[in-house]
């Protein structure tokens, strides 16, 4: 990147990609799904980076690594519920993710199109906890919580 025009081209390319987190499909977007894996200290100490490695391995083995973008993020703010994984465009919010859950998430959700309900976050979270999660939602559209069971805030 050497010019403002180069920077604007990068911004436009990334806008198309990030739109998926807002529930929008943009022409020219490279990926169909984004998987955000928490890389904060608490989640990392619970194995999130090894889980992300396994996820990427399975995506490649099953031939969908060109359709699913894995992003290792910072902290989502709910370390006690980690490792945390969010899948867009659905906004499915998985908590306490373990290595043995990855195959089902890949097969049933990323390939099959249906979130693995028993792995989704616990609706017994307090309203303030859910609001905190929403504040950390990269899409900032407060849409993902409706996909769990429609309860919202």
Q: Give the structural class.
A: alpha+beta
Radius of gyration: 16 Å
What coarse outline follows from CA principal-axis ratios?
Answer: globular
The main sheet orders its strands as 2-1-3-4
H/E series, N to C?
A: HEHHEEEHH
What's the helix and strand layout?
Blueprint (H helix, E strand, L loop, with lengths): L3 H15 L14 E6 L2 H5 L2 H14 L6 E6 L11 E4 L3 E3 L7 H10 L15 H10 L17
Parallel strand pairs: 1-2
Antiparallel strand pairs: 1-3, 3-4
Description:
With 153 residues, this protein is an alpha+beta fold. 35% of the residues lie in helices and 12% in strands. It has a four-stranded mixed β-sheet, covered by helices on one side. It is globular, with a radius of gyration of 16 Å. The termini are far apart. The C terminus is likely disordered.
């Amino acid at each position: 990147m050497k010019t403002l025009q180069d920077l604007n081209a990068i911004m436009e390319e990334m806008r198309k990609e990030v739109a998926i987190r807002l529930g929008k499909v943009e022409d020219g977007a490279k990926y169909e799904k984004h998987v955000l894996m928490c890389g904060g200290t608490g989640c990392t100490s619970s194995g999130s980076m090894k889980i992300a490695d396994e996820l990427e391995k399975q995506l490649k083995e099953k031939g969908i690594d060109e359709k699913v973008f894995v992003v290792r993020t910072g902290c989502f703010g709910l370390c006690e519920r980690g490792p945390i994984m969010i899948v867009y465009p659905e906004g499915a919010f998985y908590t306490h993710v373990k290595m043995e859950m990855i195959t089902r998430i890949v097969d049933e959700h990323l390939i099959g199109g249906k979130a693995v309900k028993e792995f989704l976050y616990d609706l017994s979270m307090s309203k303030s906890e859910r609001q905190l999660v929403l504040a950390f939602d990269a899409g900032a559209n407060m849409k993902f919580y409706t996909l769990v069971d429609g309860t919202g805030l």
